[in-house]
Inverse folding.
């Protein structure tokens, strides 16, 4: 049991680090090419999905078995469209409109939404800790968007909308595929999710301007694109795979390394600057997630102790 938990911890920390790295790389790609979010995701989803599924075939896995089960088939398609494609499109569009750190912090609101959803599903009133975490997250989001001044919004309306959709997408793809993963394995679900998501995006928003794409192809951009695909694919595999060993709340908490990695790279490599209140907002969002790691009884004891001291 302890060994499985260590495996889960290693997977989520590695996956979060890779995802934190991929955000600034995606931002660099948009800054140095004429690619749109749709252009990038079509190639990213299709290539990554095919890579995983072909790899499984060579390993002797029956990747088509899931399609013989109608209910699982439906859940897989829903995960691919709303979870895999939806979450990634919202994240990438937020990166394109704003920057990698902002997108990562919005995604990081997902762990705060997960226990709230579970509480609503179980029809239980939220605990003091959850209420405090939500309030802290909202304060952090306010500072992130406004940099302390409502009159001078730092983020555009589009960035805020796509950021919120990123948080919702993160929550969905964390919770929805848990049963599928337990039955069919991480790689099968992620592989099909990526491939189906890419196919759906081709039909929704096909690539028409191939001249624009060819003009963006250089050795450096192709290298960066391949690195993004590898880091993004492995981050999904590691993150979702950790759900076999850890709870959804735990995986959300431990992914706190993402905004830290993204922030360091964005500032040092891409020379982005952030307002003081925005940095405070990011800290509040991370604090909100950390609050959710504290056991309920321990949290209550600390509150009572502080009241006695005061």
């Amino acid at each position: 049991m302890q060994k499985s938990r260590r495996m889960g911890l290693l997977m989520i920390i590695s996956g979060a680090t890779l995802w934190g790295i991929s955000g600034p790389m995606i931002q660099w790609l948009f800054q140095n090419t004429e690619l749109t979010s749709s252009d990038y995701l079509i190639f990213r989803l299709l290539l990554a999905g095919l890579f995983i599924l072909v790899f499984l075939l060579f390993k002797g896995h029956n990747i088509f078995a899931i399609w013989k089960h109608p209910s699982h088939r439906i859940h897989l398609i829903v995960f691919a469209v709303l979870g895999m494609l939806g979450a990634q499109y919202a994240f990438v569009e937020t990166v394109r409109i704003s920057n990698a750190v902002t997108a990562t912090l919005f995604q990081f609101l997902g762990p705060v939404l997960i226990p709230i959803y579970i509480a609503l599903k179980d029809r239980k009133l939220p605990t003091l800790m959850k209420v405090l975490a939500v309030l802290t997250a909202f304060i952090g989001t306010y500072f992130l968007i406004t940099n302390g001044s409502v009159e001078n919004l730092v983020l555009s309306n589009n960035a805020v909308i796509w950021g919120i959709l990123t948080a919702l997408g993160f929550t969905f793809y964390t919770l929805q595929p848990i049963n599928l993963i337990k039955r069919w394995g991480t790689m099968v679900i992620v592989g099909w999710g990526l491939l189906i998501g890419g196919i759906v995006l081709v039909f929704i928003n096909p690539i028409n301007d191939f001249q624009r794409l060819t003009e963006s192809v250089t050795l450096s951009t192709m290298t960066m694109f391949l690195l993004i695909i590898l880091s993004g694919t492995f981050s999904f595999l590691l993150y979702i795979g950790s759900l076999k060993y850890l709870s959804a709340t735990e995986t959300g908490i431990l992914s706190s390394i993402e905004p830290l990695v993204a922030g360091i790279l964005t500032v040092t490599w891409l020379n982005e600057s952030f307002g003081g209140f925005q940095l405070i907002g990011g800290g509040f969002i991370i604090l909100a997630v950390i609050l959710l790691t504290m056991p309920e009884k321990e949290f209550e004891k600390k509150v009572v102790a502080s009241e006695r001291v005061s």
